[in-house]
Specification:
nine-stranded mixed sheet; single chain; 949 residues; 49% helix; five-stranded mixed sheet; alpha+beta
Amino acid sequence: MPARVHALLVVRPDGRPSAAFHLRRTLAALNEQRRPVDALTIVICGEDAAVRELAASSGAESVITASAGTSFAAATALGTHRLDGDAVWLLAQDTAPEPDALTRLAGALELAPSVAFVAPKLVRWEDRSEIVSLGVSMTATGRSVGLADDELDQGQHDVTHDVLGSDVRGVLVRSDAWRALEGVDPALGGADEGLDLAVRARLAGSRISLVPTALVAVAGDGVAGLPAPRNGRARRRGARAVRTAQLHRRLAYAPAPAVFLHWLSLLPLALWLSAVFLVRKQPGLVWPQWAAAVVVALRVPAIARSRGRIRRSRRASWAQIAPLRFTGHQLRQRLDEDRGVVDSAPVRGELGFFTKGGAWLVLAALVVSVASFASLLAWPVLGGGALQPLRATVAQLWADAAFGLRPLGWETIGAADPFSAVIAVIGSLSPFEPSHAIVVLWILALPLAALGGWFAAVRVTDRGSLRVMVGALWTLAPMFLVALVDGRPTAVLVHLLLPWLFYAGSIAHRTWVASGVASLLLAAVVACAPSLAPAFAVVWTGAIILSVVMRGGNGVARLIWLVIPTVVLFAPLIIDQVRTGDVFGLFADPGVPWAGPQVAADPTGRGLLAAGIPTPDMAGWQEFLPGVATWWVPLLSAPVAVLALFAPLTQRWAAGVTLLVISALGFGTAFVAVGIVVVFDQALTIAVWPGSGLSLAWIGAVGAAAVALDAGLAPRLSSARGSIAIAAALAIVVLAVPSLTALAREASLLTNGPESTLPAYVAAEGRDDPDVGTILLTPQSDGGLSAEVVWGGSETLGGQTTLLSTRAVPTAADRELADIAVDLVTSTADDAVDRLAAHGVGFVLLAPPADPDASGARELQLSATTALDQRNGLDPVGDTSKGVLWRVSDEVAPRAAAPAWVAQIAVVVGAAQLLVVVIALLLALPTAASRRGARRTSRIVGPYWQEGT
């Protein structure tokens, strides 16, 4: 047994009251040792009166003070010069050894002269039956692996002695080995310090041995070793320390020729591991990877010192360590064992898509869609309403979604509407004929809505009949069918995406997969209907508050991520609109400005909105039954409303109240939107479309109705559940009849094409050249003239910009365009055509007036035609279906390129948006672990026995 044992005890108060409490127990445990220490040196890092008092009364041979930031390695180095014994015992304020611990450690060290140090079994501070650490190994890449961490102590590891390394806490080291190895490496930052000391000891020709019968209780204060992962901050700190130590050891252990290559790989590896952790749904570990990589990359002198320590003490080869490393097979086996514990958890039942009516509902919706929109099957391009063609190529689609020159306007530079990115995604699904993707979307809209509605119902009920009811009500929702018949692509997309947002967003607090999916869906929905942003902000804020209050903050990070993609995608547009002073323009409907039919901002109009009807024609019933009273039509929505209002009175009151709040937010959005005018189409003002708010209200109302039927009926009335659901659905079926038959009755605004909004001559030239410019002149009813410039072969759905449609104050470019337009149709200037050519505009199109019977428009049309015919430099092409066309005969200059700063901003904006979308996609990818976790939770959100889950 060593003649003398000198204990080095490091204390770091850090302002925590637990420091003195833990130190008191540790000192008491030292006094109770059957084999007492021969000398005790205490190193206090920081100021604390209670700690100083305990140290002064401990009987220590010396008490050394140091600054609060002194690490464990540096503190032990301060105490090394006081050592006079044969062995040094490394302790911290929270390492309380059992009474026989030193006896067993010293005995093991005496019996094995080749052993440099021995390590105890570390157990939980408050429960000695749980192992904290008993031996550490590492993989070929330097990853440290605990051999028995967090296992219950049943003696299963008491026969293990020869290991690669151990935790640094409680180890008993020979004094000569301690000095030869130069103590603990301070560059490791508290992680893997015992493992590194053991590796250097083995390279010096010595061994390491475990003493499983020697127990030391540890609390995880973080003075020695890593802090216990009690919260997210501690987990991130520990992850950063572990990764820093791993990378540092990799560079310290590597052969000299490979050190530079390892150093070069630090940042690329951080990028790769960031993607890996996002796929694993561990985004909290991304930042520690980058922090560790940067720290290690900049700490070259520390790497040199560590390599010097190894070089000075090394007596053996690395081959002696290889047998003790953890192999890839052993690591996979360890992970599989952990998964086996998880897999033993209860597994939820099957989804039941086929057995609970989902497949039949989608099939029925497809049949109805084909019957209602049969003629669309032969249409190459869908037009009418707010529909326009898409760009001819996928590259042009994505160019319209980027920051820079817009395809409309004299010289409009700025951010693209996020809706352009949604259109680019849809158009990319049909790369050879992007416009045909909209036709397919319209044909599949009903079955897609049925599919989404059925899956949304999965979060509300497990009953197949109610899921089918929700799916049918969502498919036949009046605001959705009106949008289909009138040609409103933004409203159609909102209605198709909302149920999936509900499906994923309702469990976003549970998993990163749901959070990632919901974040992308939220960005897409808000891109299609920015007017919904305030309602979603209220729901998001409420979800965070509930998560903090009811779940102690668990899941808040996932909820916060929900809005990140939306904020990043909208940030450039927000900056542009704020810079121009048009903040309310952010809530404008994107896409084609169109003054289509919608209810007025009066009591009658808002009454129809309360019934879910956004148009004054009673969802088509006034035209379907001309001359017949239709006051009863709004009452068809009453069954759903009555059932929804009954939901808060059921056992599942929390779910019912939440859904009614969502419904109220949707109705509030619709009521406010119908009275807000932010978009202009020539001389017309256009209010925000209220149908998007009604879709949000509808999903809340239908969901609440399902809750009422699921949990609100007494057992003796349960047989009536199906009848009530059928009655509610039949009422909405009746309400949908005019919309479903509108195309067959030629009452729909949908048209076959056109393939271009410009004459075929221009469309042919501009198909592959987006810089072909056309000035479009339209006489107004009051004798005024509207002028706009279209770049490319057509106005397109993805090329629209709210920067132009919401502009209330003309810019310098607008004034220049107005001057040229006036000069073209009058004889005030002779250089109008030259100015067009210099700007890259090669065509002039005089469109027919919207109201041909208006005298002012008719007179201006005639005078403008005469003036343009007499213009030198303009060659008449002819009268087309789009208007009278002239071609600039002089040489037309190329469209002026955007300034250099535009390209620079476009790169930054594009990179930031792409990065966020990629992160969201990586989070959204399901893994085996995420699927296992999902099987342990209910599909239904907020069952009555688990309100708020």
